[in-house]
Design a protein that fits this description.
Blueprint (H helix, E strand, L loop, with lengths): L1 E4 L1 H12 L5 E2 L8 H10 L6 E6 L3 E5 L5 E2 L10 E5 L2 H18 L4 E6 L9 H21 L6 E3 L2 H8 L15 H15 L2 H17 L9 H22 L1
Parallel strand pairs: 1-2, 1-3, 3-7, 7-8
Antiparallel strand pairs: 4-5, 4-6
Helix pairs in contact: 2-3, 3-4, 7-8
């Protein structure tokens, strides 16, 4: 699996890694907009079975000297860059290019598009909503124009956060990012939509082993804890061996 996109892609992708999926998360750093997501796909040679694009914003920054869209300003002076808002068509076009590249590498690739629920306060909350709306409309355009619709899906992470988890207790202290509880809930909804029964069974068996491996004992040097940890690691190895066949 390949996860590319905003901080939310990091959050969800990290959960996949923790749960033993073969996943690569933002190999060239966090990418917030469709153009930068395309740049990651162009730079990487990964041919994943599943790719998840998490879009954060339609705002991009162009280096005035060259006119190119940069993925990271690298703490250079703001005066060197010009901010721009990508249109619905431009967002859709960048995403289509990324999809085409992945399809050439692997014809059966499954691509999941989603919009990050993280809000962008620096734009103002109204402008942040307009940015999300642009991304949503771009995805909707792609879903209607792509011929091989079987391999292109939309996961409503943004809508789940806005409609199902509307209370501020589901946000982190900055009131912008989803809380750990919210990420866990969205992860579960993702699994309901995409995981096979075999995958769900693996996760049920893996959960207590994962909890055991993550346990922090009062005395890590005790014989009891060494035995406990060795038992958990043996169960982990056996589980992975069984599901790798």
């Amino acid at each position: 699996m390949l996860f590319v996109g905003s901080c939310f892609a990091d959050n969800i992708g990290r959960r996949f890694v923790e749960d033993k999926f073969r996943a690569v998360v933002n190999p060239f750093g966090v990418m917030y907009n469709p153009a930068s997501i395309l740049h990651t796909i162009e730079r990487s040679d990964i041919a994943p079975q599943t790719a998840v694009f998490t879009l954060g914003t339609n705002h991009v920054y162009r280096l005035k000297e060259t006119g190119e869209i940069v993925d990271n300003c690298e703490k250079r002076p703001a005066s060197l860059f010009e901010e721009e808002e990508l249109s619905i068509d431009a967002c859709a076009d960048y995403l289509q290019q990324a999809i085409n590249i992945l399809h050439k590498r692997r014809s059966d690739v499954r691509i999941i598009l989603t919009v990050s629920p993280i809000r962008y306060r620096k734009y103002g909350y109204h402008e942040s909503q307009l940015s999300k709306a642009t991304l949503l409309l771009a995805i909707d355009k792609l879903l209607h124009q792509t011929s091989d619709i079987r391999h292109l899906h939309y996961f409503p992470a943004y809508e789940i956060m806005m409609d199902e988890l509307r209370d501020y207790r589901f946000y982190a202290d900055d009131m912008l990012h989803p809380s750990t509880q919210a990420v866990e809930y969205i992860w579960q909804r993702f699994g309901e939509m995409f995981f096979s029964e075999r995958t769900q069974q693996f996760l049920r068996e893996w959960s207590p082993i994962k909890a055991a491996l993550g346990h922090r004992p009062f005395n890590p040097d005790s014989d009891e804890y060494r035995t406990f940890l060795a038992d958990a690691r043996a169960k982990e190895a056996a589980l992975i061996s069984r599901y790798s066949q």
